[in-house]
C-alpha cells in the first residue's frame, strides 16, 4: 500500500456560482466513499487567507514561502491505495466531482514515518 496525493491549485477550479452547490455536494460524496472504502488518510483545502511563513532551523520566522517556488494553494486529498491504477481511478472520481483536473503524486515509502 502506498499513499497518494491527489491535488489541484485554486486557479484550476473555474466554477460558476450556479454550479458551486453541486460541486460541494459531489466532492463531499467522493470523500465519504473513500472513507467508507477505508482508503482515506486526510484532506482539505489550504486556507489562503493565512499567509505562509518560512521557519529556519534556528527557529527564526520569515514572512512568505520560498520566493522561487510556486505558491501552494487549492485542495488536496491523501489516500492509501494498493496500486497506481487505483490511485488514477480515485483521481478521476475527484476530478469529476470538483470539475477540474487533479494532479497525482505518490509519497516515497519511509518505514520510519
From TrEMBL:
This is Transcription initiation protein. It comes from Lysobacter arvi. InterPro entries: Dimeric_a/b-barrel (IPR011008). The lineage of its organism: Bacteria, Pseudomonadati, Pseudomonadota, Gammaproteobacteria, Lysobacterales. SUPFAM superfamilies: Dimeric alpha+beta barrel. It comes from the Bacteria.
